[in-house]
Amino acid sequence: MNNKPVIQVFALGGTIAMTPGASAGVTPTLSARDLISAVPGLEDMAALRAETVVQKGSANLTMAMMADLMERVAQSDADAVIVTQGTDSMEETSFLASLLNQSDKPVVFTGAMRTPNQPGADGPANLYDAVLAATDSRLRGVSLVMNGELHDPWFVAKEHTSSLQAFQSEPGPIATIAEGELHWRRDCPVRNVGLSATGQFAPVALISAVLDDDGRMLDLVADAGYKGVVIEAYGAGHLSEVWADKAEALAKGMPVILSTRARGGKIFERSYGYRGAEIDLLSRGLVPAGWLRARKARLLLSALLGQGVTNWKQTFTRVVKSG
Known about the structure:
Elements: E1 6-13, E2 18-20, E3 26-28, H1 32-37, H2 42-45, E4 47-56, H3 63-75, E5 80-84, H4 90-100, E6 107-110, H5 123-134, E7 142-146, E8 149-151, E9 156-158, E10 167-169, E11 175-178, E12 181-184, E13 204-208, H6 216-220, E14 228-233, H7 241-251, E15 256-260, H8 278-283, E16 287-288, H9 294-306, H10 312-322
Parallel strand pairs: 1-4, 1-5, 5-6, 6-7, 13-14, 14-15, 15-16
Antiparallel strand pairs: 2-3, 7-8, 8-11, 9-10, 11-12
Helix pairs in contact: 3-4, 4-9
């Protein structure tokens, strides 16, 4: 096949790259070239370049690593990029990559729920589907491929510890993959957030509201050196009166984002009027996260503050609504 698309594969480790260790359990040891070689016919689809960036479990990936990765993406002359990594943090890393992305070229994240030595290992199929997606002319920007589905990183979440169907999006996948092609349900949005891959991020806390907690964690946020906090509230954006008072005090000195601990739905802004409900909280200076889940709101706020965006509130709100 002539004039095959050029695809750069960056490997970061994770379950897809794990093999049995010398003592117990599995560890990430397979290289990018190992992963490619394990999929028959993969190189018939594209000219694949392989680079092993790190070999880590995805809990050890950092925002700075993702900034470095997106600089590599920007500098690459490949037609598309595939990133293989662990699934534990992939909903966050892919979202952060979309914030820092400066290109329309496809950047496809994928991984595996089962290690290569397990029966029914899904890594090879996911990598095959990622290459297939990366060569589709309709695909632009950052996406995530798992279990025959293409997801928008702004809405996808890992919802199960072991199921092959662990990754779910509240509006459903952008496309499904069957019979060697993508079946599109809607367009894959390309968002130009305006952030750069500088590697500068501010520390932002994430605290979840739970029954009958006195909010003492909120008292520690400022002294701990955090520059902002995301609160996972009840339901559509509700806190106890004690938490509401503490959140208001924090909001006088730093950004406080109001998100939800619920798995789906948006933060309300004008429905509930009692003390500690969303109307009251927003009047105290908290900023709604809209549809954005708390883990992703934290990344967005961290990047905005780290890059010195002075009008962070307006920019945060604009980015959330653009999603």
